[in-house]
């Protein structure tokens, strides 16, 4: 007999797959074989639930920074934890309620992976709620995801849940006897009923067992610790089965020596579709190239990016690429909405530098060719754009993670392409071993340990020491070095003194201060337009910072990008700024350096060029090249675009 199943979703996920989960749950309500009435509750109004035997609560929960729940789930998780240990509620407070839980997390955050999902499952069980099936886990880390992606993890769990839901709709009894200890179900009928309901037996599909996670294994481990290592003979078979599965899981997903078949092309279908939809041309297994909006703008004679104003880059001849789309941070203001994977070390198939550069240039040229005949495109700039002169290694991810980054940079210089490399200050040794580049950037997104943790959400546990060591390594470089500060209103604009101390540590040649770019709504970030500072606010911040730095002064401004440049006084000669780059001179110097085996070194002052008057701070052009024509928006809203 089919009865009504009321599924309430307590959803606090901040992942981009929220709509996917919701769509699936709505799909349940349309299926005649489940006859389910689905209600989605994202506000976690748990007190409104009427716990009956005809209800199944589906919990979709995400683990955020430091193993904590997301902001809109903090109160619920705190209440549930306290209720599970509060004698006033009693151990049977949720008796009669049935539930299923699916947790979202990233296994790169060692020690905090899916903590919230595990805790919610544990606390519900402690209040006598009954699981209808084991907890599912979705891993955003494609390398260790048991199904290849978080979507596939959810799909595998969803398939099992749907089978269980259909069985319940047919009136089948619950599989658990209710006599579990510590949440570990040892009912021998469990496996028999699972087979009768159409679930594959563990003997036939032992590999699929790896795809489902519950508190059972964790509780069993706890129980073993309490009762010692003595095992009854009749229990030996089940114990050996668990050990065998654990060994398989450890070998396949967590072993250090990874076989060639397990060296993943992380550009699977899910990542490929996400990146392709936002304009990426993907190269090999870990690289990409994308046409910058400022490249398009300068092709039309509508102005270049701030690097054109500050350093003389020809934006229409600049290729934006990266040999590593993976990153070691998950910054809250990431322009790419976390469509790329994260990691602390290289673990993918590695493409040769020659292949990456060749395909990057070819893809870039093909994207430029698409502008042939487009109204407004200047013919001479179109032809120039086909010849790449600059390479901005700042697309997304962490290019310095690529093991052959030095080979890649040498190939760029051999083609007389200048190199602008950006790193997130988490790889100090790689910075020290880096060959000379035209300009080396370090992202300084915060000035204190707590704010850096909150903004960048780094994967490394020793992220702050790595950050400081990276700044120190930058100070050892002889070529042009830059601190890149991104101002996020209400996050990091009140830390002037701490910023000044960090600048003293690395002694960069330049400091770029830019207001955060708003990239639209993202369920992976809580930033809104309210966090984007006005240009006047950025100018005020930079002026205050300059007052605290006796060796620096505001040199340039690019109002359109909401960006200013602080430069060291050594670049001001006879009252005039020399922040631009003599690119031909740099190519001569780097060639001499390579031919001498690194003995003929050079410094930042060896390849400077004079900054034009229109680019200097205080000029009426405010950083816009007068040889181009600026097109203003008809409305006066903030320009949310950026490079």
Outline the fold blueprint:
Layout: E1 5-11, H1 18-30, E2 36-41, E3 55-62, H2 74-85, E4 98-105, H3 115-126, E5 130-131, E6 136-139, H4 150-169, H5 189-196, H6 215-227, H7 236-254, H8 269-277, E7 281-283, E8 287-290, H9 293-299, H10 306-311, E9 318-322, H11 353-369, H12 379-385, E10 390-393, H13 405-414, E11 418-423, H14 428-432, E12 439-443, H15 449-456, H16 463-475, E13 480-487, H17 496-506, E14 510-515, H18 535-547, E15 552-558, E16 563-568, E17 572-573, E18 576-577, E19 580-581, H19 583-595, E20 608-609
Short characterization:
With 643 residues, the chain is α/β, with parallel strands linked by helices. 34% of the residues lie in helices and 15% in strands.
Notes on the structure:
The protein has 643 residues and is an alpha/beta fold. It is built from 19 helices and 20 strands. The strands form 4 sheets. It has a 10-stranded mixed β-sheet, with helices on both faces. Helix 2 (74-85) links the parallel strand 3 (55-62) and strand 4 (98-105). Helix 11 crosses helix 13 (405-414). The longest helix is centred in the N-terminal third of the chain and has 20 residues, at 150-169.
Count of spatially separate domains: 2
Are there runs of 5+ residues with pLDDT below 50, and where? 1-17, 181-236, 242-264, 638-642
In what range is the share of β-strand residues?
A: 15-25%
CATH H-level homologous superfamily name of the largest domain = Aldolase class I
CATH top-level class of the largest domain: Alpha Beta
Mean pLDDT: 77
InterPro entries: Aldolase_TIM (IPR013785), Flavdoxin-like (IPR001094), Flavodoxin/NO_synth (IPR008254), Flavoprotein-like_sf (IPR029039), rSAM (IPR007197), rSAM_sf (IPR058240), tRNA_wybutosine-synth (IPR013917), tRNA_wybutosine-synthase (IPR034556)
Protein name: S-adenosyl-L-methionine-dependent tRNA 4-demethylwyosine synthase TYW1
Family: Belongs to the TYW1 family.
Keywords: 4Fe-4S, Iron, Iron-sulfur, Lyase, Metal-binding, Nucleotide-binding, S-adenosyl-L-methionine, tRNA processing
């Amino acid at each position: 007999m089919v009865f009504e199943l009321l599924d309430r979703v307590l959803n606090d996920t901040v992942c981009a797959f929220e709509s996917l989960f919701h769509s699936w749950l709505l799909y349940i309500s349309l299926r005649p074989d489940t006859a389910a009435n689905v209600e989605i509750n994202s506000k976690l109004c748990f007190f409104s639930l009427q716990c009956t035997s005809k209800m199944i609560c589906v919990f979709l929960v995400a683990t955020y920074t430091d193993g904590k729940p997301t902001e809109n789930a903090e109160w619920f998780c705190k209440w549930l934890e306290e209720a599970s240990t509060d004698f006033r509620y009693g151990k049977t407070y949720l008796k009669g309620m049935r539930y299923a839980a699916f947790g979202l997390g990233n296994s790169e955050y060692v020690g905090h992976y899916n903590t919230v999902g595990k805790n919610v499952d544990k606390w519900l069980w402690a209040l006598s709620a009954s699981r209808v099936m084991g907890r599912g886990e979705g891993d955003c880390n494609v390398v260790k995801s048991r199904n290849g992606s978080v979507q596939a993890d959810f799909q595998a769990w969803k398939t099992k849940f749907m089978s269980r839901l259909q069985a319940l709709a047919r009136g089948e009894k619950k599989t658990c006897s209710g006599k579990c200890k510590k949440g570990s179900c040892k009912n021998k009928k469990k496996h028999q009923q699972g087979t009768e309901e159409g679930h594959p037996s563990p003997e036939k599909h032992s590999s699929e067992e790896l795809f489902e996670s519950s508190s059972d294994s964790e509780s069993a481990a706890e129980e073993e610790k309490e009762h010692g290592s003595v095992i009854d003979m009749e229990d030996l078979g089940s114990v050996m089965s668990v050990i065998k599965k654990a060994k398989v899981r450890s070998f396949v997903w967590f072993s250090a020596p990874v076989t060639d078949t397990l060296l993943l092309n992380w550009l699977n279908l899910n990542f490929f579709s996400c990146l392709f939809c936002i304009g990426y041309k993907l190269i090999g297994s870990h690289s990409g190239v994308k046409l910058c909006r400022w490249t398009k703008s300068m092709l039309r004679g509508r102005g270049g990016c701030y690097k054109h104003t500050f350093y003389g880059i020809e934006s229409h001849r600049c290729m934006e690429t990266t040999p590593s789309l993976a990153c070691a941070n998950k910054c809250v203001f990431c322009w790419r909405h976390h469509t790329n994977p994260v990691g602390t070390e290289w673990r993918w198939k590695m493409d040769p530098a020659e292949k990456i550069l060749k395909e990057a240039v070819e893809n870039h040229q093909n994207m430029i060719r698409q502008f042939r005949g487009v109204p407004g495109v200047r013919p001479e700039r179109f032809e120039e754009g086909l010849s790449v002169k600059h390479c901005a290694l700042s697309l997304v991810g962490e290019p310095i993670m690529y093991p052959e980054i030095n080979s890649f940079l040498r190939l760029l210089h051999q083609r007389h392409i200048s190199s602008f490399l950006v790193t997130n200050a988490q790889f100090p040794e790689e910075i020290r071993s880096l060959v000379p580049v035209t300009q080396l950037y370090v992202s300084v997104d915060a000035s204190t340990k707590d704010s850096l943790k909150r903004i960048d959400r780094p994967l490394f546990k020793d992220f702050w020491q790595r950050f400081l060591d990276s700044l120190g390594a930058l100070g050892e470089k002889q070529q042009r070095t830059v601190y890149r500060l991104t101002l996020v209103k209400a996050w990091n604009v009140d830390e002037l003194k701490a910023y000044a101390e960090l600048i003293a540590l690395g002694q960069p040649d330049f400091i770029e201060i830019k207001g955060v770019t708003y990239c639209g709504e993202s369920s992976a970030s809580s930033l809104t337009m309210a966090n984007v500072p006005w240009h006047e606010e950025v100018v005020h911040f930079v002026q205050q910072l300059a007052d605290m730095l006796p060796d620096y002064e505001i040199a340039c401004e690019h109002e359109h990008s909401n960006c200013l440049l602080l430069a060291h006084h050594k670049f001001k000669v006879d009252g005039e700024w020399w922040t631009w780059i003599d690119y031909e001179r740099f190519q001569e110097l780097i060639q001499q350096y390579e031919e001498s085996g690194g003995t003929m070194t050079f410094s930042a002052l060896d390849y400077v060029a004079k900054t034009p008057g229109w680019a200097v701070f205080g000029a009426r052009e405010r950083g816009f090249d007068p040889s181009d024509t600026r097109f203003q928006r008809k409305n006066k809203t903030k320009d949310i675009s950026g490079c």
